[in-house]
């Protein structure tokens, strides 16, 4: 069943500025139990930094996470986004087309207001699915 993104997204997206260190962003991800942070500059979306970006574009390349900025390793503009009034079907199509698992939700020309994940879409589509269960499971600390 198609729903609006505002009804399924996580509205409390964590954001950092491009000059934030990768180490600081990683600590935020751990503290918030999330796999990505939005990278914003002057309130507008600049990029997205995922846990995978940290591993592949920073650590695996031998960069010091304490000296490397998120702006240098995040997914750069243009970032695939959607609006809060877009449909979950549209989000699923964007994820499929671009092979991504998370989409920033923006309004007013680029101001981020949340994130929608593949797990959010699965839970909205079928709350009894395995992916929905995994999405709702407590963190594994």
Entry keywords:
single chain; 141 residues; globular; CBS-domain; CBS domain; 5 strands
SSE topology:
Layout: E1 15-16, H1 22-32, E2 36-41, E3 44-50, H2 51-59, H3 70-73, H4 88-98, E4 102-107, E5 111-117, H5 118-125, H6 130-136
Parallel strand pairs: 1-2
Antiparallel strand pairs: 2-3, 4-5
Helix pairs in contact: 5-6
Shape: globular
**DSSP strand (E) fraction?**
15-25%
The residue ranges in which pLDDT falls below 50 over 5 or more consecutive positions are none
Measured between the Cα atoms of the first and last residue, the distance is 34 Å
C-alpha Rg, in Å? 15 Å
Please bin the fraction of helical residues.
25-40%
Instruction: Give the overall pLDDT as a whole number.
Output: 88
User: Strand count, sense and closure of the main sheet?
Assistant: 3 strands, mixed
- Fold-level CATH name: CBS-domain
* Number of helices in the DSSP assignment: 6
Characterize the quaternary organization of these chains: single chain
Q: Number of folding domains?
A: 1
Structural class: alpha+beta
Task: Count all strands and give the number.
Answer: 5
Using the coordinates above, name the CATH class.
Answer: Alpha Beta
CATH architecture: Roll
Keywords: CBS domain, Repeat
Protein name: CBS domain-containing protein
Pfam family, one: CBS
Organism: Streptomyces marokkonensis
3D architecture notes:
Residues 9-65, 74-134 form the CBS domain. The chain has 141 residues and is α+β, with helices and mostly antiparallel strands. It has one domain (5-136): CBS-domain. The protein has six helices and five strands, in the order βαββαααββαα. It has helices spanning 22-32, 51-59, 70-73, 88-98, 118-125, 130-136; strands at 15-16, 36-41, 44-50, 102-107, 111-117. The strands form two sheets. Strands 1-2-3 form a three-stranded mixed beta sheet. Strands 4-5 form a two-stranded antiparallel ribbon. Helix 5 packs across helix 6 (130-136). The longest helix is centred in the N-terminal third of the chain and has 11 residues, at 22-32.
